[in-house]
Amino acid sequence: MTITDTGTGTVSWNRTALDEIVSNDGGRPVLFTNARIMTMDPLIGTMTGADILFVGSLIVGVGPAIVTAAQDDNAIVVDCTGTTVVPAVVDTVALAGGRGRRSDHVATLTPGNTADFLVVPDELAADVPGAVATLLSRPEQVRALVAAGRPVLWAGTDAPGRATAPEAGIPAAPDLTGSPRLGVWIDRKDFLHQELTADGRYDETRGGRRHAYQGRFWIDGDRIDYLDDLGFWAYGEFRGDELHHAGYVMKLG
């Protein structure tokens, strides 16, 4: 649905729906309806006149006729007539036929997956690569770019309140004083000791060899990134009271 603002002469696309999505706290379902949907899922395939329904960040339904329950569910409805919906995260290996099993496919528009998708006019979406190329070369033609259920682009412009990309480059060392994740992490075999300090530095002892690796680290949620003084990058993940890193499972000593 295209709406012309007679006062300014500008054209918007589903502006009312956008306002509702932006103000949604994640509780109301959101339904993009009456689109051609290229799911990239080998079982579901491509459908026309179809809907994609998501709640919060997750897709909960894909296919025709979901819109019939929109009023019952108090869903926010986005009319996508004349457009194609494709995954915003493209599995190029799958495009080349390199995935042996359906469960190996990445970022398909499948119920249970994250709602990361792109909406472009049909004429600019002969296939998935063509639709993605529109985002990269002609973003003003994009009807919507949705990431984890939140609009990023809408009608070719930045959506209100969109997430901003982190600045490129190595950030300043954080002050982690008081973080419960500081201290010496020790693996199950007592081979690896990794000390995390409040100045954002780590120091590893391996098999009794002190200062085997040293460098900087950054924690983002449950992820930890390492930049070693030798120049290489590595990462780990906090899972409950464990730190998983490079095949080691560690706990605070």
Automatic annotation (TrEMBL):
It comes from the Bacteria. InterPro entries: Atu4866-like_sf, Metal-dep_hydrolase_composite, Uncharacterised_Atu4866. Coiled coil: none annotated. This is Amidohydrolase.
